[in-house]
Amino acid sequence: MSYWIKWGDPWDDRNQGAKVSFVWALSGSYIYAVQVPGAAPYHIGMVVGWPPYGYGYGDRGVWQPNVTTTPIVTGRWYFVEEYFKYPTTPGGSDGVMRWWVNGALNGDFRSVTYPADAGFTQFEFPFTRQATPLARSYVYVDDTRVSGRP
Known about the structure:
By secondary structure, this protein is an all-beta fold.
């Protein structure tokens, strides 16, 4: 899947970041892209919500970029591409999780365990936050594309 995204200026991340895009598996497990909290510039990471990785931010479920880290600043558009591939056998550990920002590979993980289910069923942009921002904040999304095997 791919999409263009821009965090508005000003942006109040409340030191908690912001969930961006969710991909849901049939089992109810998920992967989501996150604007990782901290001082600007920000970056994009992934959170995996199934065993053995954990179920949320702050535990083993957070995957940071391992190739390059594209800095994210407010007021600019970024092109994000996400690629997920289930293992060749259910419960196997040869699954893939990769993401690019503006064409630069940020995360490349090739030994990922996925749930032993029928695969992904839903993609969404929920933009959930853990705390209410102190100032009005906007996120803009454009040209979303989702593809997969029939």
